[in-house]
Amino acid sequence: MNQFKINKRVFKYFILSISFFTLFSCSNDDTQTVTNLNQLIIQDEFNVDGAPDSTLWNYDIGKGPGNDGWGNQELQYYTDRPENIIVEDGMLKITAIQESFEGSAYTSSRITTKGKYEQKYGRFEARMQLPWGQGMWPAFWLLGSNIDEVSWPNCGEIDIMENRGQEPTIISGALHGPGHSGSNFIGKNYDLVTDRVDTSFHIYGIEWGEGYVNFYIDDVLYNQITPADVPGEWVFDQPFYIIMNVAVGGNFVGSPNADTVFPQTMLIDYVRVYQ
Ligand SMILES: [Ca+2]
After folding, report:
1. C-alpha 67 to ligand 1 mean position (Å)
2. Which among 135, 148, 161, 165 has a CA at the least distance from the CA of 242?
3. What is the rounded end-to-end Cα distance, in angstroms, of the chain?
4. Which of 112, 165, 161 is nearest to 137 (CA)?
5. What residues sit around ligand 1, an ion, with C-beta below 5 angstroms?
6. Which helix (H) or strand (E) holds 7?
């Protein structure tokens, strides 16, 4: 993280604070906390061709434990086939395909670091170019490592980036937990306005510490969520693991239509975590 970037962040934070104050006359308590975590502790640059590094990544296969499209009525069947997921050209490529497969009309892929890399706090970021079109649902997100013990949403979910493929200028970041899950998530959209997520790479990240999660796209801090913003218990002071996937259809985006072009690929240049 170079100094220029840090200074720019601080500057944007300053502008944000002024804007919040001007627009909403917030109390001084509502100023945002900006951290600059720059000690790299894990990275996957996707430089080795073939399947993703099995020391870091697991596959989620199929339609979800409830066979219900991962709780969201998603339409794809996740596979570990190279057609759906492969590392080449310095990129991880997750590709959604329209094809009949195991009773589903689409295939795609979803990988996680569950049991292999789990961490509390840090800066998590990925440089990605997203797929495009009605019904595409790419995501870069975290789940609480205790999900098998306490179940979702008690484990907590941090959505670093989600996008509706039909809205290629808009991304969203959110938290889900007890009292604020599903459509009652706590989060915010960010509109690039003059740029798109499917035609250029962007860096999607959070800086996460005790009592806050800051949401970034590139060097823009567009939201901070703290326990004061969350109606239920704050469950974000424990280890989480990373997930990356491209879903097709489901509650968040609706189904593809005749205008949706397949295949669609999410390109991930790297994933890095800093403390
Ligand atoms: Ca790379």
Report:
1. 33
2. 161
3. 12
4. 165
5. 45-46, 90, 269-270
6. helix 3-24
CATH of the domain at 165: 2.60.120.200
In sequence order, what are the beta bridge partners of 36? Answer: none
Full residue range of the structural domain in which residue 211 is found: 40-244
* Ligand 1 center–CA 269 separation, angstroms: 4
Query: 234 CA distance to ligand 1 centroid (A)?
Result: 34
Q: Is residue 19 part of a domain?
A: no
Kindly indicate the confidence band of residue 36, based on its pLDDT and cuts at 50, 70 and 90: confident
- Closest-CA residue to 256 (of 268, 247, 265, 245): 247
Task: Tokens for 97, please give them.
Answer: 């395909």
- Say how far apart CA 145 and CA 246 lie, in whole Å: 21
Is the pLDDT reported for residue 247 higher than 60?
A: yes
Answer whether residue 49 is part of any domain.
yes
Q: Which two tokens stand for residue 112?
A: 């996680």
Residue 13: is its pLDDT beyond 70? no
Question: Minimal CA–CA distance to 51: which of 82, 14, 30?
Answer: 82
Distance 69 CA to ligand 1 centre (A): 30
Q: Which pTM value belongs to this model? A: 0.88
* Higher-confidence position of 129 and 14: 129
Q: State how many domains the chain has.
A: 1
Average pLDDT of the chain? 91
Q: How far is the CA of 72 from the centre of ligand 1 (A)?
A: 31
Maximum distance among all Cα pairs of the chain, rounded to whole angstroms:
56
Q: Report the distance separating Cα 189 and Cα 16, nearest Å.
A: 15
Catalytic residues: 157, 162
In a domain, 2, yes or no: no
Instruction: Measure 218 CA to ligand 1 centroid, in angstroms.
Output: 17
Q: Is residue 264 part of a domain?
A: no
